[in-house]
Amino acid sequence: MNIIMVSSECAPVSKVGGLADVVDGLGRELQNRGHTVAIILPKYDCMEAGEIIGLEVEMTDLWVPYFTEVIRCSIYKGIVHDLKCYFIEPQSEQKFFNRGVYYGAADDAERFAFFDRAALEFMYKANIRPDVIHCHDWQTGLISVLLSDMYAKLGMQNIKVCYTLHNIKHQGIASPKVLDMIGLNHKEYLRKDRLQDDSRPEYINLMKGGIVYSDSTNTVSPQYAWEIKNTDEGYGLERILIEKDDKYQGILNGIDYDTWNPEKDTFIRKNYGISTISDKEQNKQALRERLMIAQDNKPLIAAVGRLDPQKGVHLIKHTLFYALENNCQFVLLGSSPDKEISEYFWHLKYYLNDNPNCHLEIDYDDSLAHMIYAGADMIVVPSLFEPCGLTQLISMKYGTVPIVRKTGGLSDTVFDANSIDGKRQNGFVFNDFTYAGIEGALAKATDLWYKDSAAFKTIMINAMSCDYSWNHPAESYIKLYRNANES
Ligand code: ADP
Q: Is the domain of 457 the same as that of 479?
């Protein structure tokens, strides 16, 4: 099959979080299975351009409608991690993708709506006619709308759109003018059965558009698929998901075992696998050296991720103090665009600067992330909600035992001793989004580490033995694409 992914992120060239890993990992798995895959991305000024091989201009004069005018775009082409990528660069005074950040501008909806129109215009002009366009999150919600409204009439009517929701909290709520900006008549779409936001009727909802107009919608774990359809975690999109239930499902994410694999990871001091698990200790030493933490007989607990309320930041902070009070060590790697959260963690960092049992790295640092996954004993993922979560999957591959809250993809992938479905224990799970909730799980995990290292090692090996590669999920996506083409 011929598959085009349109996305606002792709690892390692433009990564904010898990979406980037998914586009890269799934794309590579599909390509390895003989499918033709290409990815269309914005050409951000802040992207890691050094990760692109053979970047060259593909097209210099792609004229993309913008209100009653047109904006000239250049299209670049290059290889990122073996995948063919196209990068769209608008030559306009708005400098849509030259903001020094991926997200967070006041006109994000306009920027990505324009990106969607440009992506389709490029495919149209370059005569790219895939079997499937796979779109991701609200930033590409308008692709299926544009395809059905205008490009189907231009010979692109056989292309199917599969749409994946990576985080339903962020929906792209915008003024209806955004539609006029890219050539869609907003009056036609400001309707309850189309793009009108269910709770704010004067606005359009780009993610809703993607759900309504795509041939299939899925999210990134079965449990999250259920939660966003049946509880208020759907942030207002529950009704439309129930309506579209026959073409809606959850497919668990995988991780790319070429990127995340302790047996061949080039960022870590000593490679190891299940049969050489004792070598993991050398990576703990290396991590402590790098972060200037004491080399003591203590368990090292880590947290890696965006410092967003979704991730349970107060429980991450609580873990830090729990660790210091209970003979453990703690490492945090995380960053936040939110000034208040960021300042809070910077304050903590200064306050604990001389403490030999913890380190806070308030930054985005891929190589350090690899070292932490390899060097820590446990990782906490105390999320309020979690569509899939990759940090627990990566940790398990590295034998770093996850301590997670029972929600979304975390509950589909991490199993405690008392799991009733016969799964082997590969971590520790708690229910309540409270200090007491996480403390219970931390106490169980750290007690076991101190009192029964053989039992703790069994959990590490169980975690490393899980197959969370792209192997199974890729099959599900291929089935999804085929079903869309047959419908
Ligand atoms: P989300 O997509 O909600 O941010 P996921 O758990 O799905 O969370 O994916 C997070 C990905 O981003 C993982 O690959 C993780 O290693 C990476 N990551 C998050 N924060 C950082 C950071 N500060 N430095 C390096 N990598 C990070």
A: no
pTM of the complete model beyond 0.90: yes
Residue ranges making up the domain that contains 49? 2-254+471-486
Q: Ligand 1: which of 257, 304, 413 to mutate, judged by most atoms within 8 Å of the beta carbon?
A: 304
* Ligand 1 and 334: CB distance under 6 A: yes
Using alpha carbons, select from 46, 32, 45 the residue that is nearest to residue 83. Answer: 32
Whether ligand 1 lies within 6 angstroms of the CB of 110 is answered as no
Q: Is residue 265 one of the residues assigned to a domain?
A: no
Helix (H) or strand (E) holding 465: helix 453-465
Looking at the DSSP assignment, which residues form a beta bridge with residue 333? 304, 361
- Residue with CA at minimum distance from ligand 1 atom 20: 305
Decide: 408 in ligand 1 pocket, CB within 6 A: no
Distance 474 CA to ligand 1 centre (A): 21
CA pair distance 129, 109, nearest whole angstrom: 26
Same domain, 387 and 361: yes
> Does residue 263 lie within any of the structural domains?
no
Count CB-CB contacts under 10 A for residue 94. Answer: 15
The CB of 302 under 6 Å from ligand 1? The reply is: no
CATH classification of the domain holding 411 = 3.40.50.2000
User: Which one of 306, 308, 313, 335 would you pick to mutate in the ligand 1 pocket, going by the greatest count of ligand atoms within 8 A of its CB?
Assistant: 306
For residue range 274-290, list pLDDT tens digits in order: 999 999 999 999 999 99
Q: What is the pLDDT of residues 210-241, one digit of tens each?
A: 999 999 999 999 999 999 999 999 999 999 99
Distance between Cα 259 and ligand 1 center (Å): 14
Long-range contacts of 269-275, Cβ-Cβ distance < 8 Å, separation of 24 or more: 269/371, 269/374, 272/374, 272/399, 273/464, 274/399, 274/461, 274/464, 274/465
Please tell me whether residues 400 and 475 are part of one structural domain.
no
Q: Domain for residue 56, yes or no?
A: yes
Q: How many domains does the chain have?
A: 2
Residue 259 lies in a domain: no
Instruction: Express each pLDDT in 349-402 by its tens digit.
Output: 999 999 999 999 999 999 999 999 999 999 999 999 999 999 999 999 999 999
Considering the domain architecture, whether residues 461 and 475 belong to the same structural domain is answered as: no
